[in-house]
Every structure is written in structure tokens, then in C-alpha cells.
Amino acid sequence: MSETPVKQQNTAAFYGQAVASFSVAMAATAIGIFKLHADAWVRGFLAIAVLYLVTSTFTLAKVIRDRQEGAYPAGRAYGPFEKL
Predict the structure, then answer these.
(1) What is the DSSP letter of 73?
(2) Cα–Cα distance between 82 and 84 in angstroms, integer?
(3) Which of 2, 28, 32, 42 makes an SS bond possible with 38, Cβ 3.0 to 4.6 Å?
(4) What is the pTM of this model?
(5) pLDDT digits 0-9 by tens, 20-72
(6) DSSP 8-state class, residue 2
(7) Distance of CA 25 to the CA centre of its chain
(8) Taking a C-beta distance cutoff of 8 angstroms, is the pair 72, 79 a contact?
(9) Residue 41: φ, ψ to 5°
């Protein structure tokens, strides 16, 4: 008898909590940067750094998810940039 793997899905409450947590964190960071007693270029630099960190985090999470779900072709043990 073959067992079919069951794909678990997140509950709506877990999804809502994750979205709310991300929203609160981004809002708190934005308010903190806005209220910072520094020149505008310093606040701008910090804002760009936070945006870069967020986008790179989403990309990393997607790559990890794809690897766990087997999105890479069979027989290839490394990603396209891992040999660099």
C-alpha cells in the first residue's frame, strides 16, 4: 500500500496572525525611522535598508520553500548559484 503525503495547510488564524505581525513590525519600523532625530538622508538610507531586507527575506523564504517542495529538477543537488 502506498502512502500519499498529506500537504498541510495553514489555518486562517495562523495566516491572519502572520500578516498582522508583519504589518505591526513594518509600521513600528516606519514610525521609528520617521521620528528619528537625524537628517533626512539618514532616515532615507535606513528606510531603503529596511525595504531591501524585507524583499531579500521574502526571496530567501521562497527559495527555501521551493527546495523543500522539490521544485528543483531531480538529479541536481545544488542550486544555480551554489557552485560560485
Answers:
(1) P
(2) 6
(3) 42
(4) 0.66
(5) 999 999 999 999 999 999 999 999 999 999 999 999 999 999 998 888 887 66
(6) P
(7) 13
(8) yes
(9) -70, -30
